[in-house]
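S.,

Sequence below, as promised.
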Amino acid sequence: MHGLNRVQVYGLEKLHEALLHRPKDKPLITVSNHVASVDDSFVIASLLPPSVLMDADNQRWTLCATDRCFKNPVTSAFFPSVKGLPMSRGDGIYQKGMDMATSKLNRGGWVHIFPEGRCSRDGGKTLGSPKRGVGRLVLDTDNIPMVVPLVHTGLQDIMPTGANLPRIGKAVIVVVGDPLDFEDVLNMEESQHVTRGHLYDAVSSRIGHTLQELKLQADRLAPEQSGRLHELGQQNSERAANILQLIDWESLGVTPEVSPDQFSSTKKDSHFQQEPHLKNTGEHLNISLAYEGGIMSRMRCLVDPSELMGFAAKGLFINCRLSGGCQEDTPTRGPGPLKVRKVMMPTTATSS
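The prediction came back faster than expected:
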């Protein structure tokens, strides 16, 4: 999330305070919107401090749908190992998975839950109505848990519906809200004799309203961050193109093929860019690095261009030596006297 994509978090200190400094026996519930199947793993991991990320005992528990996460022996073995609890759709709030989650909270643990109960059907544009189950988790624990809401946007671009592999070079916005207090809801039960079901609904409604407010904030921030990402990508592309122009390709014996101008633009619906060629000492430079679906195109917004070119150049010369393609006479040592082998410079950089 932080290396191949960009994550901008607002209010992160609120979550870290809850994770690191809440009372020992105080349970924690985090609630968020549900956009993609990787919401829990990708977003939560991007928010954790290293001390929590590397400590399995302090990781979150989460509810996983049995029809998706426990449908065969492999997934049934995997998800419990990453602290997933089975949740059967349609079996109500008094089922085994909910009881297990309550038990974890009673021990002061951390449970992450999606109040909507399922992934968004419109790519995260709207929030679904919160289910009653989150109300039960809040009210049926021995100690009222700390509830921290958060909303994210942009993950639908990393793992869109139907995708098998996550995409890179995207921006994600996460907004963490203030912890929610539900003491007044408990007082309603004692003073007004409200039924337990109505209390569950009151908790769920408050959480849903808070998530809606956070989503409005995230949606306002998303265009701004997207613009910054695009501007940074353009700057890096221009720097990379300038570096390419400064390289004396002829001295390296390299005949480029596609313009480094392609570093500065992308085109989603074509395999390769068709851009005007940059000129260097009267010759066209044509180095192909900007295929939209390829790793080089996406890395251009993520890696400092000078580092990228240094890495590429190093790889070029290492490859030359390993394949016997260097122009100079290269001394080598064998079991006998010092020997010299004659090797030739490749005519193109395609294999590199």
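Confidence is low (pLDDT under 50) at residues 262-303, 325-352.

Coffee later?
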